[in-house]
Amino acid sequence: MRSIYFDYNATTPLDPRVREAMLPFLDEVWGNPSSIHHVGRKARALLDDARDRAANVLGCKPGEVIFTSGGTESVNLALFGAARRLKSKGRHLITSSIEHPAVLHSCQYLCRNEGFEVTVLPVNPEGFVSPDSLKETLRPDTILVSIMAANNEIGTIQPVAELGALCRERDVLFHTDAVQWFGKEPFDGIQQFNADLVSICAHKFHGPKGAGALFCRSPLHPEPLLFGGSHENERRAGTENLAAIMGFVLALELFVRQPVFSKPDLTPLSGRLIAAIDRIPGARFVGSRHQRLINTVSLVVEGADSIALLAGLDLEGICASSGSACSAGSLEPSHVISALGLNDSLAGSLIRFSLGRKSSLDEVDYVSGVLRSVVGRSQQVENRAQTL
Fold first, then answer.
1. Coil, strand or helix: which one is 208?
2. pLDDT grade, residue 388 (50/70/90)?
3. Contact 268, 345 (CB under 8 A)
4. Are the CB atoms for 107 and 95 separated by under 8 Å?
5. How many Cα neighbours within 13 Å face the side chain of 368?
6. d(C-alpha 344, C-alpha 150), whole Å
7. 286-295 pLDDT, tens digit each
8. Cα separation of 190 and 324, whole Å?
9. What is each CA distance from 352 to 5, 242, 250, in whole angstroms?
10. Gap between the Cα atoms of 255 and 261, Å rounded
11. Do the beta carbons of residue 215 and residue 187 sit within 8 Å?
12. Global pTM?
């Protein structure tokens, strides 16, 4: 059976060059960077060099790079760490209705258990946060705003530089979850986000799973989530995963400044897929046609559900998603689609195709042809279930 992988927003395959760069740190360089003997000092020197290299790509100070286990931890450290550090100044947080669960669940926890108040900004039908709505919501006791750079489910790109500038004018910390941005959108340096905290994840751009970073603008020192050591300048306890860090840093160097997800290559492919969706009865493209991640194409289907649609596509050898991979197995309608103003039935029928560097026109045409029949069969199954 033919296999087509259109789920690059969930994860990407490890690049062979990244794998090769990691291998010495699984064998030859095995010391603990915190040990003071020569084996440990060798590991420490290479860890420090990796931090310098990451900072060089990001355009920041080495001390502003905190290595983490990935996007979720980076988000959690940013939100919990900053909120707890600044709670004496205020307890008001702001986020949006289409954030990744790592953001929304963190905010919900802080609200339920630690006395914070959270304002959730709405989005328009294409998934955009209005800078005016943020400006109106900022208060004297607002200490932190978290708005993602690009949405993982529908690809909408937010005006984060403008949102961050508004926060800076009010002396409010701004965090952006840029997990889906890196490797897909132009990157000139971390300053382009106007953010104090930026979350990054390696496996979204052909790096290893279990590796990421939080950019933390100095002199902010977030309250740690993990305790047990003075690692990462006392911001993240735990012996550093040197192999994963080395893979992450090389992926940064290879795939971020020159995005590995090529717009010239992917624009005609995603455009052709959207055109095919527009011709399928009951199918509807969701998100922005103009200001989105060029690899991301999402749709909802009247009279069908995500599980039946994904199963039908999988039987044809096509890997797609119903949204966030972190929510796999959930039967709840997509909160992102609901936030766009669509009903629960449509929100429960989300399908996301996310293309990658090896995607081809032939694959798009195959998926387009199969999608029509999969949609039709899923609608028939749903209609029969409703008549029983």
1. coil
2. very low
3. no
4. yes
5. 18
6. 23
7. 999 999 999 9
8. 25
9. 12, 34, 28
10. 8
11. no
12. 0.94
Q: What is the DSSP string of 79-101?
A: HHHHHHHHTTT--EEEEETT--H
Query: What distance in Å separates the CA atoms of residue 26 and residue 180, rounded to the nearest whole number?
Result: 28
Helix (H) or strand (E) holding 376: helix 361-387
- The whole-number pLDDT of residue 386 equals 58
Before 219, cis peptide (omega within 30)? yes
For residue 288, give the amino acid letter.
Answer: S
The closest alpha carbon to 322, from 367, 353, 282, 345, belongs to 353
The HSE-up count of residue 89 (CA atoms within 13 Å, CB side) is 14
Give the pLDDT confidence of 76-115 residue by residue, as tens digits. Answer: 999 999 999 999 999 999 999 999 999 999 999 999 999 9
Q: Which residue has the tokens 């996007």?
A: 71
Q: Is residue 319 flagged as an active site residue?
A: no
3-state class of 121 per DSSP? strand
- pLDDT tops 50 at residue 343: yes
Per-residue three-class SS string for 26-51: HCCCCCCCCCCCHHHHHHHHHHHHHH
Q: Cβ atoms within 10 A of the Cβ of 252, count?
A: 24
Query: Any idea which residue has 């559900």 for tokens?
Result: 305
8 Å CB contact between 79 and 105: no
| Radius of gyration of the chain, Cα coordinates, nearest whole angstrom | 22
Whether the Cβ atoms of residue 174 and residue 168 lie closer than 8 Å to each other: yes
**Whole-angstrom distance, CA of residue 264 vs CA of residue 271:** 12
The alpha helices in 231-360, defined as continuous H runs, are 231-234, 242-255, 263-278, 306-315, 335-339, 344-347
Identify the CATH assignment for 4-12+260-387 out of 3.90.1150.10, 3.40.50.300, 3.40.710.10, 3.90.870.10.
3.90.1150.10
Active-site choice (201, 216, 319, 326): 326
**CATH 1.10.3720.10 is right for the domain spanning 16-255:** no
**All structural domains of the chain with their residue ranges:** 4-12+260-387, 16-255
Burial grade of 258 (CB within 10 A; 0-12, 13-18, 19 or more) = exposed
Bin 194: left if φ > 0, else alpha if -120 < ψ < 50, else beta: left
